[in-house]
TrEMBL record:
<dbReference type="Pfam" id="PF02475">
    <property type="entry name" value="TRM5-TYW2_MTfase"/>
</dbReference>
<dbReference type="GO" id="GO:0070901">
    <property type="term" value="P:mitochondrial tRNA methylation"/>
</dbReference>
<dbReference type="InterPro" id="IPR029063">
    <property type="entry name" value="SAM-dependent_MTases_sf"/>
</dbReference>
<dbReference type="InterPro" id="IPR030382">
    <property type="entry name" value="MeTrfase_TRM5/TYW2"/>
</dbReference>
<feature type="binding site">
    <location>
        <position position="355"/>
    </location>
    <ligand>
        <name>S-adenosyl-L-methionine</name>
    </ligand>
</feature>
<comment type="similarity">
    <text>Belongs to the class I-like SAM-binding methyltransferase superfamily. TRM5/TYW2 family.</text>
</comment>
<dbReference type="GO" id="GO:0005759">
    <property type="term" value="C:mitochondrial matrix"/>
</dbReference>
<dbReference type="InterPro" id="IPR056744">
    <property type="entry name" value="TRM5/TYW2-like_N"/>
</dbReference>
<keyword id="KW-0819">tRNA processing</keyword>
<keyword id="KW-0539">Nucleus</keyword>
<keyword id="KW-0808">Transferase</keyword>
<dbReference type="GO" id="GO:0052906">
    <property type="term" value="F:tRNA (guanine(37)-N1)-methyltransferase activity"/>
</dbReference>
<keyword id="KW-0963">Cytoplasm</keyword>
<dbReference type="InterPro" id="IPR056743">
    <property type="entry name" value="TRM5-TYW2-like_MTfase"/>
</dbReference>
<dbReference type="Pfam" id="PF25133">
    <property type="entry name" value="TYW2_N_2"/>
</dbReference>
<feature type="binding site">
    <location>
        <begin position="300"/>
        <end position="301"/>
    </location>
    <ligand>
        <name>S-adenosyl-L-methionine</name>
    </ligand>
</feature>
<dbReference type="GO" id="GO:0005634">
    <property type="term" value="C:nucleus"/>
</dbReference>
Length: 461
């Protein structure tokens, strides 16, 4: 017999099906699959036997191929699990390798009960066995994990099964202690982008701890905005910042832009209108040891754009950076002990970040005349450029990229009273538009970046 290599053994070992289950019954999934095993005579030969039986061995994820079997009190045997096509009592199912090893008495082929239970199967396995036939392959697989909270946004067809789904997720998601379902749109009930939720499983405790970009954040997920799916976008934006630059983070949340930027030794003024976000932001600044570079504020965004610009211009701020000589050089002639470097905060921002996609574009009028009377700061000899503005927004999903960019630029133009067109984001009057992510079937999130036009900044019309 030649053992076929194309059989999908994972599909043969499926959990039992119960499409009427509404409350999770874990013991229901205890299942025994009768298979064959190669009982090893000399345990010291197991490694070599596994090599010879590599085509005949059972390959099942999360399951060992060698098992210990108790035949009598104090007596153990080692067996190598074999593919289900092999039958102990039917030698016609044995490969030539198996026949040779049996003949040499290195192994004997014996029955083996392969026991699989609820703990073995993964979330998707259980879901495909308990959900109705029509949706068994369309189980909820798009969920966020924020600290110990699993955050679902269930569709209508999943609502009758929400407690069953949540119970399985609570078991299967490592570290999960609560499973919640969003029951309204983010920001639909208040201006702070929070949402109402229902607890489906676990403890009603949404005070979470999150690590992102080597930074630690702690916040109450029910009171502040946090989107785990924006991790990549946070990194992309922070990569635009250079050490020593000043950053104005107008809608900072708990600090996913501001804190990593502070770690790069960027000077950041970070603001959020939500008092809970402000408190969590202050905590993150202190906990991540960036107090020398990041200041937290709790103001209206429009006011903050102007007040932070004035504050940056009027205040002299310095930070002393201490650099210690590596231990490997301390006993050498190159040892210089401790070096200190004084950094001075710039007088103008290099970047303004407006991350409130539902309405950030409405804050753009605050930039009109922002630097009026300060034209000398940007004179050619200073080599200081007018700041880049990064404004996040939503727009309709459209296969016509030009149409999307045109709509975004028109929105910006209307608020700035200055014509803006798609382009490189550096040339005056041009906007670079970055496609961030899908947020709904017909809606996407974008980041529009442009250098503040001279006519807008100085209001020289």
């Amino acid at each position: 017999m030649t053992v076929p290599d194309t059989i999908d053994h994972a599909r043969m070992f499926r959990p039992p099906v119960n499409r009427t289950m509404r409350v999770l019954d874990r013991p229901y999934f205890n299942t025994v699959f009768p298979i064959a095993a190669a009982k090893v005579r000399d345990w010291q030969k197991i490694s070599g036997l596994k090599t010879r039986l590599r085509k005949e061995m059972l390959e099942l994820e999360r399951r060992k191929q060698v098992e210990s079997v108790s035949e009598a009190p104090g007596e153990l045997s080692k067996v190598i699990l074999l593919k289900p096509e092999i039958t102990p009592s039917d030698e016609s199912t044995w490969s030539p390798t198996i026949s040779d090893l049996v003949k040499s008495q290195d192994i004997s082929i014996v029955p083996f009960d392969l026991e699989l239970d609820y703990n073995y199967w993964q979330y998707q396995d259980i879901m495909s066995s308990v959900l109705p036939e029509a949706i068994k392959d369309d189980y909820p697989n798009s969920f966020s994990i924020v600290g110990h909270v699993v955050h679902l946004n269930l569709r209508d067809e999943h609502q009758p099964h929400k407690y069953l789904i949540a119970s399985v997720l609570l078991d299967k998601v490592t570290g999960a202690r609560a499973v919640i379902n969003k029951i309204d749109e983010v920001g639909s009930t208040n201006i702070f982008r929070t949402f109402n939720y229902e607890l489906l499983a676990g403890v009603d405790d949404l005070s979470v701890e999150v690590y992102e970009d080597d930074c630690y954040f702690k916040f109450d997920y029910s009171k502040v905005y946090w989107n785990q799916r924006l991790n990549t976008e946070h990194k992309r934006m922070v990569n635009n910042f250079l050490p020593g630059e000043a950053i104005c983070d107008v809608m900072a949340g708990v600090g996913p832009f501001a804190v990593p930027a502070g770690k790069k030794r960027c000077w950041v003024m970070a603001n959020d209108l939500n008092p809970d976000s402000y408190r969590s932001l202050r905590y993150a600044v202190k906990r991540n040891k960036v107090t020398d570079f990041v200041e937290a504020y709790n103001e209206d965004g429009s006011d903050f754009i102007r007040s932070s610009t004035r504050k940056l211009l009027s205040e002299e701020v310095k930070a002393t950076i201490t650099k210690r000589t590596p231990r490997s050089l301390r006993d050498s002639s190159d040892f210089r002990g401790v070096e200190q470097k004084v950094l001075v905060r710039p007088k103008t921002f290099a970047h303004y970040v407006l991350n409130l996609p539902a309405s950030a574009i409405n804050f753009l009028p605050s930039f009109i005349g922002l630097y009026k009377g300060q034209e000398h700061l940007f004179a050619p000899e200073t080599k200081t450029k007018l700041p880049l503005v990064h404004v996040y927004c939503f727009n309709t999903k459209d296969d016509d990229t030009n149409a999307v960019e045109g709509r975004i630029c028109k929105g910006i133009s209307d608020r700035l009273a200055f014509e803006m067109k798609p382009g490189d984001g550096e040339t005056e009057g041009q906007v670079s538009i970055w496609d961030v992510r899908d947020v709904a079937p017909s809606k996407r999130m974008f980041c529009a970046t442009f250098r503040l036009p001279t006519m807008v900044a100085f209001n020289a019309r």
